[in-house]
Design brief:
177 residues, mainly alpha, globular
Length: 177
C-alpha cells in the first residue's frame, strides 16, 4: 500500500470517529449524517434519503466486515486493513460517492459550487484549507464550480490503495500556499 493511501486511512478513521471516543460505532455515523444533512439545506428529500442510506450502508459494511468480536465498535487496528480494499469496500464507496456528490448539486445542473462543497466537507470533518485545496485540484470552471462526476470520481479515488498524487491527497497534507 502506498504511503499516501495509509495517510488517507488514518484521516478517514479520525473522521468516522465523529464523537472522538477512539473507536467507530453506529452513533458516529448518526452524528456525521446529521451534520451533513444540516449542511444540505437546499437538497431535496430524495438526495437526503440517499446520503442517509449511504452512511447507513457504510456503517453496516464496516460492522459486518470488521467487528469480529461483536462489540459494536471498530478500532483503528480493525479498520486499517479493510477500508482501502476495493474488493470488500468498493460498492459501498461507490454508493457513498454518488450520494454525497449528488447532495452537492441541489439544483440538478450537474455542477457543484464551492460554498456548498466546503459546507458538506466541513460537516464530514475535513479542514477548511484542505477542502479548498481539494476543490482547486479538481479544476473548477470560471464560475468556481466542479462537476458532480468529478467529485464522485475523486471520492472513489480517495479509497484506492494504489493511487498517489490524486486530488484527494490534499485532504491529508498541509495545503500549498
Amino acid at each position: 500500500m502506498r504511503t499516501e493511501a495509509a495517510q488517507r486511512i488514518e484521516l478517514v478513521f479520525s473522521l468516522f470517529d465523529a464523537n472522538g471516543n477512539g473507536v467507530v460505532g453506529s452513533d458516529d455515523f448518526d452524528l456525521m449524517t446529521d451534520r451533513v444533512l444540516k449542511a444540505a439545506v437546499a437538497s431535496d428529500d430524495g438526495a437526503k434519503a440517499a446520503i442517509r442510506a449511504a452512511f447507513r450502508r457504510y456503517w453496516t459494511t464496516l460492522a459486518t466486515e470488521l467487528d469480529a468480536n461483536g462489540d459494536g465498535v471498530i478500532t483503528v487496528d480493525e479498520f486499517r486493513p479493510f477500508v482501502l480494499d476495493p474488493e470488500r469496500f468498493g460498492p459501498t464507496v461507490k454508493e457513498f460517492a454518488k450520494a454525497l456528490s449528488a447532495l452537492g448539486d441541489p439544483d440538478g445542473d450537474g455542477l457543484i459550487e464551492r460554498p456548498l462543497f466546503v459546507s458538506l466537507m466541513k460537516a464530514i470533518g475535513f479542514e477548511e484549507a484542505n477542502i479548498h485545496a481539494l476543490f482547486d485540484a479538481f479544476g473548477p470552471d470560471a464560475q468556481d464550480r466542479i462537476t458532480v462526476a468529478t467529485w464522485a470520481a475523486g471520492i472513489e479515488d480517495f479509497y484506492a490503495p494504489d493511487l498517489a498524487g490524486i486530488p484527494g491527497d490534499r485532504l491529508v497534507s498541509a495545503p500549498v500556499a
